[in-house]
Amino acid sequence: MTLIEWKEHKGFCLSHDEPAVGESERERFITNGLACLPWDAYTPDLANGGSELMGIGGEVATLSMPCNKKLSKSEKRELRQSKKINAQKKRQMKRQVELDKYGDEVEASFKPYLAKQEIKHIYTNVILHTTDTGKNFLSKGEDFKVLQYHSIALYKSDLEHLLPGEWLNDNDISFVYELIIQLFIKSDQCRDFANQIQLLFPSLVQLLQHFPADDIENLLPMDDLIKSRFLFLPISFIDKPSVEIDMEDANNGDHWALGVLSLLDNKLFVYDSMKVDNDINGDTQLQALCKRLESCSKLVKGKIKVVHMNCDQQKNFDDCGVFVIMFTCYFIGQFLFHDEISMDIGKVQFNPLDARLYIMKLIAKLTNRSNGK
């Protein structure tokens, strides 16, 4: 098992110590990945706006409207629905506490139906109350920008991909990556050497996979990358890689997986939530990606070894992109807030529906701030 340790005057280094007693017996726990990062602590200006950033068991945000504005019939119906969901959730939590034989308060178990309702509710709230211009586009059935966050413009169509049952697109993953970069990696509050971690957007990884190999170094932000020790790569696998790729299409690919390239020992750790044994096609694409990375002599010194890691597996065909985000957030939380990091996540169980809800709440907070609410 590969262990990494953070040293105050060096940054991230390979650890040569044996795992602590009981490390291999670590209990399985459930997370949505995003909750491993202290979002509220690093976004104090968002602490009172929008939905609370709660994990499993969080409460639905009620529709926020100016007190002097008369509600329309649809808005009244939406408000009643959110109150009904909150009341139902409170009753369930109360029953859970009463049933606990020790009388201790315990968190109510995760309710998928309520989570799906909450996601749809927040989505509707964000779309309807973004801007007056947005309402005009909505009435015409057109796409429109919901939020601009640094380099990422988030559109209504991107939010639709966050709804349950939908397949995340490039922009959804890029948005969360941009949040992590701006709020944590570039934050003055964060630990030194945070810039040794680099998150590459899916569009850039796609170029790495399919652009002519001779020009790869010219594509990459080499000044930043040569300082790094870990690269996070959202890898898009294609079932038929021999088919010519349209580089203008942002959402090529059939499946997402996360690659974490450790430049400390030239290993590409691959976390695939739909792992297939003896996947010749997938292995071929990974080897091709490694060769392209190896051609960046300023960045990679030597041959890269692909290491397939055990990780939680998705239970449907829609959540691969969500798993990439959950894995990434879990690891970033480890790298930035722990001194000892294990690349083994085999005993961590992830909740993709709760992750969709968490991301939607983040978007609601940011849109509320940008709209001055």
From TrEMBL:
<dbReference type="InterPro" id="IPR003653">
    <property type="entry name" value="Peptidase_C48_C"/>
</dbReference>
<dbReference type="InterPro" id="IPR038765">
    <property type="entry name" value="Papain-like_cys_pep_sf"/>
</dbReference>
<dbReference type="GO" id="GO:0019784">
    <property type="term" value="F:deNEDDylase activity"/>
</dbReference>
<keyword id="KW-0788">Thiol protease</keyword>
<dbReference type="Pfam" id="PF02902">
    <property type="entry name" value="Peptidase_C48"/>
</dbReference>
<protein>
    <recommendedName>
        <fullName>Ubiquitin-like protease family profile domain-containing protein</fullName>
    </recommendedName>
</protein>
<feature type="domain" description="Ubiquitin-like protease family profile">
    <location>
        <begin position="152"/>
        <end position="331"/>
    </location>
</feature>
<keyword id="KW-0645">Protease</keyword>
<dbReference type="GO" id="GO:0008234">
    <property type="term" value="F:cysteine-type peptidase activity"/>
</dbReference>
<keyword id="KW-0378">Hydrolase</keyword>
<dbReference type="GO" id="GO:0000338">
    <property type="term" value="P:protein deneddylation"/>
</dbReference>
<dbReference type="InterPro" id="IPR044613">
    <property type="entry name" value="Nep1/2-like"/>
</dbReference>
<comment type="similarity">
    <text>Belongs to the peptidase C48 family.</text>
</comment>
<dbReference type="GO" id="GO:0006508">
    <property type="term" value="P:proteolysis"/>
</dbReference>
